[in-house]
Amino acid sequence: MKKEGISVVVIDPGHGGKDLGASFGNAVEKNIVLDIALKLGTTIKDNYPDVKVVYTRTSDVFIPLYKRAEIANKNEADLFISIHVNAVNAQSVQGTETFVLGLHRNDDNLEVAKKENAVILLEDDYNSTYEGFDPNLPESYIMFETMQEEYQGQSVMLASGIQNEFRNYAKRLDRSVKMAGFLVLRETTMPSVLIETGFISHNGERQYLTSEAGRTRLAYSIFRAFRDYKSAIEQRSSFQLITENQAKSSDEFPLTNNNPPSGLPLAQPQGATTQQTNEIFYSVQIMALTRKLETTAANFKGEKNIFSMQGNNLNRYFSGKYKSLEEAELELSRIRAKYPSAFVVAFKNNKLISVKKLSEH
């Protein structure tokens, strides 16, 4: 059974050894990303001594892609973070981007995946190891179209946080969260992201990436996103989403006038005099995304009983409203075939409240 919370993180510095990765002059990807990765891991351990940090490499050695995923799976990691830098022929291109596993939506994403996957050509017997996958053939990537989405929501959640921190804290150009077919992410059994921390082919970004201050700021940006992700996931896992005693002065999950959950009355402004109905109902949260989706059956694998709640950086999607916990748990057992990461939540007066707290009354 998968443990709750974030207790093991695998950090993967891309490339290494005979695989230089991207290079431009004296700037070499394998060296830059190793330093960022070690800085990130040290910061996590300093702030969260109970979190086990595992690196796929801590020195200049070559690690096959399948071994990197194997390290994460054997350590039962709760998170896999792969760190890279980019390079293209057009030296004007710059910015950071964070990828999650899936089928590329455009040729640029495919090209990034091709470059990162090409490392398998340096491996012995790569053809049988990767079942005939050719990183240079677009048709090889069709297999990513049917990849399971079990961890996609959490991966996107972390990826979005990383891009927010790169933009707001490190002041990097934001090239957004993207999707592509990376072999290193394909075999991991946990939320996973692949981060491109900048383009060494761009003069300004190369100077930033090769500076101690730049790499430190990038590492701390990733840490800040990890910190927020860990907090959000562990609140969810312990059913401490937002209780009446924990609610912040600006509600983290407001029912806004622009996007109220269907069928629910709007929340009242603070200080407004309202009659408390103490209405309690249960639901099943199926996903949390940074992007907003219309709650139509077409967007939710045929499910018709979906409503949403808009937060500061996340849109949460729920299935059904039930008077009893037992009914919600029946819904959970049904819908987990489509959404394996789903879990039961409770609402009181249209606010999320701890299921655990309700059960104690």
Question: What share of residues are in beta strands?
Answer: 15-25%
Class from secondary-structure proportions: alpha/beta
- Order of strands, widest sheet: 4-1-5-8-6-7
Mean of the pLDDT scores? 77
Low-confidence stretches: 238-277
How many whole angstroms does the radius of gyration measure? 22 Å
Largest sheet: 6 strands, mixed
Number of strands: 13
Helix content: 25-40%
Order of helix and strand elements from N to C terminus: EEEHEHEEHHHEHEHHEEEHEEH
| N/C terminus separation | 28 Å
- The total count of helices amounts to 10
C-alpha geometry: elongated
Description:
The protein has 361 residues and is an alpha/beta fold. The chain is 32% helix and 21% strand. The chain contains ten helices and 13 strands. The protein has helices spanning 29-47, 65-74, 107-117, 126-129, 152-168, 183-186, 203-209, 212-237, 325-335, 355-359; strands at residues 8-13, 23-24, 27-28, 52-55, 79-86, 96-101, 174-180, 192-199, 280-289, 306-310, 315-322, 343-348, 351-353. Strands 4-1-5-8-6-7 form a six-stranded mixed β-sheet, with helices on both faces. A hairpin with a 4-residue loop joins strand 10 (306-310) and strand 11. The longest helix has 26 residues, at 212-237. Residues 238-277 have low confidence and may be disordered.
